[in-house]
């Protein structure tokens, strides 16, 4: 009945620890656990207007990576912000405690909020909402690999749902380098074994890149190859997002 | 059926009540309320200008800060703050001083059971001391249920832990009115039988709950008599200190 | 601006939204006079509710509950802890409620919602004091290892009646929970048995517990009502909650015992008759929710 002592016992998860990374992939080809080809993305499930309380929202599933994004605004800026004749964008990405296999590891990705901001600010026409702020909040429900690209794509879908003016939809895809293989849209197991990664955020119809993030050691021809792969996948993803938005509009008209 | 209580009280007997007001110099209103060994100190500052951003500027708003005796502020303290805030908002006349904030700070001096009711009584006495306009006073009582279904009033901490269930009830105080009897009844029940706040812990049957409500009414009548006497005796010769 | 009469032309219609924003209390009271609410529900009816089990694949038990637009996602993750010395054969349940900024325009990343810790405490009080979960079932080896169940409830969309939806999703997640099969390895650590390990492959202890479900002693359901003058409205939306401030939350268990009656102040006083009415409404709602939960559980078992 009365509250017990407030001491929090330390706990550990009983799942088996990560498998050791196998020998460097010099000669052996990587086999994708879910049976995809190296240049094949996961099937995507997209839905807009997932959250009723927000001006615009979207829910996206890429395999096991599930993300929900809400957009609020344009709404009044905080009193502390000075007058500005362009709008402001405010982004925040957070993880649920059950998103990662071990509870509570989502706080390792604090830089995703600023990366999301940089990816989106090039595409939004800020002059259309002076003095106000658009808030983009993302919640990763389950992370199955390639989180940030999925968050960016979902955020641009939510912005379109909210009616914020943009130059184009923003799509993002990442490529992992495992030995000599380039695999697109990696899952979390592949990401943990990768030697390097490349993420591109682009505006597919205008063929412009808003953000490029490269980690690891890459040779120039490899970078070109990876970029080709990404841009191709981005334009396909752009088509899928567009058809999802058109469907949502036609459903709401009925 | 007689229950043996460790301190020798009967089932319906409350612990000795004591209330002293105007004990803090700087606060606009203050009170110290003790029920047996549970002691809570309340201080009221206000009305101060301005309200917080999300509040309605057409009404006064109340802010509550709860300071536990030891330890950091956690979820239990936030819950107490919310309950107190809502309770005090329902007894204050909020339209008299719009766009102001009155802040009530509670400090737990000792916790020996029945903490939230003691705090509500202290806050109410402090509001009276500060001269904040109130519709009526709030009188709080703790009732607990033993396994056999009998009601024990004002349990101490040891007793609370052994009980099946206990609840905190807050009623408006009883009214001494010059108007005839029938005017203050709503649906055949006197006004002071209405519940302002009810918080329960533990499982009980619905009949037990209603039974506790009746006992609570009787006890609240006694507490409101005590409150009336103690407020009247100190009311004379005390100038108001509201800024 | 007088109350806009029944003039049926475009001007009259445009005024309705403005009237709703400028005079919300009068707007709702006009509806209450006709015993109806703005979304065409009668006063005692709750919104449409659904429960889906197994929403999060990586958690040991999970459920998503929707009441109207209010959406809650609950997930349970099991971790191992050493039990305390006062109760060496009992596990522990830690309940937390989060309101991330996506759920409501009033929650910002730096400014958490005021109601979130209160609802978290209410949930954990209701679940622990009702004895829904037998903590002795969560024990592995007496004195050495026991399960700690972390239940996290996330609000994905806040539209009133948050506690009801949170409790529904928590209860559904517990009924979906499967405790994994574990054994103790050589270092004394508890490890889950994965499917590739055959039986008795090494000198491990034999499996301590096989994969099993938790037995729930009773199931809790709740209903939040609003009291306004003489009316009692069941299952309020966020707009109704902000306009009429007196809420009563009644939690009943499956054998109709009262687990909690929570009324945190509010301008309207509740008399015994109002309390009885709220409890009767909650009894009715318990039957509805019981049916919905049983259907969701049987859907899961068919798969």
TrEMBL record, chain A:
GO terms for molecular function: RNA binding. Its main location: cytoplasm. It is found in: Cytoplasm; Nucleus. GO terms for biological process: nuclear mRNA surveillance; poly(A)-dependent snoRNA 3'-end processing; rRNA catabolic process; rRNA processing; U4 snRNA 3'-end processing. Residues 8-17 have a biased composition (Polar residues). Residues 1-24 are annotated as: Disordered. This is Exosome complex component RRP41-like. It comes from Protea cynaroides. The lineage of its organism: Eukaryota, Viridiplantae, Streptophyta, Embryophyta, Tracheophyta.
TrEMBL record, chain B:
Its main location: nucleus. InterPro entries: ExoRNase_PH_dom1, ExoRNase_PH_dom2_sf, PNPase/RNase_PH_dom_sf, Ribosomal_Su5_D2-typ_SF, RNase_PH. It is found in: Nucleus, Nucleolus. One of its GO terms (biological process) is rRNA catabolic process. Transmembrane segments: none annotated. One of its GO terms (molecular function) is exonuclease activity. Residues 13-133 form the Exoribonuclease phosphorolytic domain. One of its GO terms (cellular component) is cytoplasmic exosome (RNase complex). The keyword rRNA processing applies. Signal peptide: none annotated. Keywords: Exonuclease, Exosome, Hydrolase, Nuclease, Nucleus, RNA-binding, rRNA processing. Belongs to the RNase PH family. This is Exosome complex exonuclease RRP46 homolog.
UniProtKB/TrEMBL annotation, chain C:
The keyword RNA-binding applies. The lineage of its organism: Eukaryota, Viridiplantae, Streptophyta, Embryophyta, Tracheophyta. It comes from the Eukaryota. PANTHER family: EXOSOME COMPLEX COMPONENT RRP43, EXOSOME COMPLEX EXONUCLEASE RIBOSOMAL RNA PROCESSING PROTEIN. One of its GO terms (molecular function) is mRNA 3'-UTR AU-rich region binding. This is Ribosomal RNA-processing protein 43. Belongs to the RNase PH family. The keyword rRNA-binding does not apply. Residues 47-180, 222-267 form the Exoribonuclease phosphorolytic domain. One of its GO terms (cellular component) is nuclear exosome (RNase complex). Pfam families: RNase_PH (PF01138), RNase_PH_C (PF03725). Keywords: Cytoplasm, Exosome, Nucleus, RNA-binding, rRNA processing. It is found in: Cytoplasm; Nucleus, Nucleolus. Gene3D superfamilies: GHMP Kinase, N-terminal domain.
């Amino acid at each position: 009945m009365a509250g017990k002592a407030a001491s929090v016992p330390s706990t550990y998860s009983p799942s088996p620890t990560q498998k050791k990374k196998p020998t460097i992939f010099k000669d052996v080809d990587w086999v994708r656990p879910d049976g995809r080809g190296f240049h094949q993305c996961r099937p995507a499930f997209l839905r807009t207007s997932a959250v009723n309380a927000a001006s615009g929202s979207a829910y996206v599933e890429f395999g096991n990576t599930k993300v929900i994004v809400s957009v609020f605004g344009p709404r009044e800026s905080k009193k502390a912000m000075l007058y500005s004749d362009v709008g402001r964008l405010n982004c925040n990405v957070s993880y649920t405690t059950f998103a990662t296999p071990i509870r509570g590891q989502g706080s390792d990705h604090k830089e995703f909020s600023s990366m999301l901001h940089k990816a989106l600010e090039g595409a939004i026409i800020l002059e259309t909402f002076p003095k106000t702020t658009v808030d983009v909040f993302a919640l990763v429900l389950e992370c199955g690999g390639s989180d940030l690209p999925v968050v960016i794509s979902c955020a641009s879908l939510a912005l379109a749902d909210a009616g914020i003016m943009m130059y184009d939809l923003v799509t993002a895809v990442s490529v992992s380098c495992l030995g000599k293989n380039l695999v697109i849209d990696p899952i979390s197991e592949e990401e943990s074994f990768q030697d390097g990664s490349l993420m591109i955020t682009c505006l597919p119809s205008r063929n412009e890149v808003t953000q490029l993030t490269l980690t690891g050691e890459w040779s120039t021809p490899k970078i070109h190859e990876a970029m080709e792969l990404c841009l191709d996948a981005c334009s396909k993803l752009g088509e899928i997002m567009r058809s999802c938005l058109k469907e949502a509009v036609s459903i709401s008209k009925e | 059926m007689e229950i043996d209580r460790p301190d020798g009280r009967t089932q319906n007997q409350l612990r000795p009540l004591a209330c002293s007001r105007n004990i803090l110099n700087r606060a606009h209103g203050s009170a110290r309320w003790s029920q047996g060994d549970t002691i809570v100190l309340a201080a009221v500052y206000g009305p101060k200008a301005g309200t917080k951003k999300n509040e309605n500027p057409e009404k006064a708003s109340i802010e509550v800060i709860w300071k536990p005796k030891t330890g950091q502020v956690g979820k239990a303290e936030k819950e107490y703050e919310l309950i107190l805030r809502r309770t005090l908002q329902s007894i204050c006349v909020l339209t008299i001083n719009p766009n102001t904030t009155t802040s009530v700070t509670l400090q737990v001096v000792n916790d020996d059971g029945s903490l939230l009711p003691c705090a509500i009584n202290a806050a109410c006495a402090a509001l009276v001391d500060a001269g904040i306009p109130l519709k009526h006073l709030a009188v709080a009582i703790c009732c607990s249920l033993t396994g056999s279904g009998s009601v024990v009033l004002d349990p101490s901490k040891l007793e609370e832990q052994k009980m099946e269930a206990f609840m905190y009830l807050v009623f408006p105080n009883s009214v001494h009115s010059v108007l005839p009897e029938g005017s203050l009844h709503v649906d055949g029940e006197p006004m002071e039988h209405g519940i302002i706040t009810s918080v329960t812990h533990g499982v009980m049957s619905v009949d037990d709950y209603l039974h506790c409500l009746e006992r609570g009414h009787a006890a609240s009548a006694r507490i409101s008599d005590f409150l009336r006497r103690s407020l009247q005796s100190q009311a004379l010769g005390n100038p108001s200190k509201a800024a | 601006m007088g109350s806009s009469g029944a003039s049926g032309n475009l001007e009259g219609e445009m005024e309705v939204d403005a009237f709703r924003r400028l005079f919300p209390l009068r707007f709702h009271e006009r509806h209450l006079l006709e015993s109806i609410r703005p979304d065409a529900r009668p006063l005692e009816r709750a919104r449409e509710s659904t429960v889906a089990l197994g929403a999060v694949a990586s958690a040991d038990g999970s459920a998503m509950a929707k009441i109207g637009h209010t959406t809650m996602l609950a997930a349970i993750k099991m971790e191992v802890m050493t039990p305390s010395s006062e109760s060496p054969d009992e596990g522990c349940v830690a309940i937390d409620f989060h309101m991330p900024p996506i759920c409501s325009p009033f929650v910002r990343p730096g400014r958490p919602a005021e109601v979130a810790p209160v609802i978290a405490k209410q949930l954990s009080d209701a679940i622990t004091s009702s004895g829904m979960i037998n903590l002795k079932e969560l024990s592995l080896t007496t004195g050495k290892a026991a399960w700690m169940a972390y239940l996290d409830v996330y609000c994905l969309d806040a539209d009133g009646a948050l506690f009801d939806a949170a409790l529904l999703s928590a209860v559904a997640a517990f009924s979906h929970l499967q405790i994994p099969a574990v054994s103790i390895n050589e270092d004394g650590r508890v490890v889950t048995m994965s499917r590739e390990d055959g039986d008795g492959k090494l000198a491990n202890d034999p499996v301590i517990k096989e994969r099993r479900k938790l037995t729930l002693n009773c199931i809790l359901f709740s209903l939040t009502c609003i009291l306004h003058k003489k009316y009692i409205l069941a299952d309020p939306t966020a707009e109704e909650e902000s306009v009429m401030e007196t809420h009563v939350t009644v939690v009943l268990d499956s054998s109709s015992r009262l687990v909690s009656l929570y009324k945190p102040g509010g301008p309207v006083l509740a008399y015994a008759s109002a309390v009885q009415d709220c409890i009767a409404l909650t009894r009715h709602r318990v039957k509805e929710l019981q049916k919905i939960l049983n259907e969701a559980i049987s859907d899961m078992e068919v798969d």
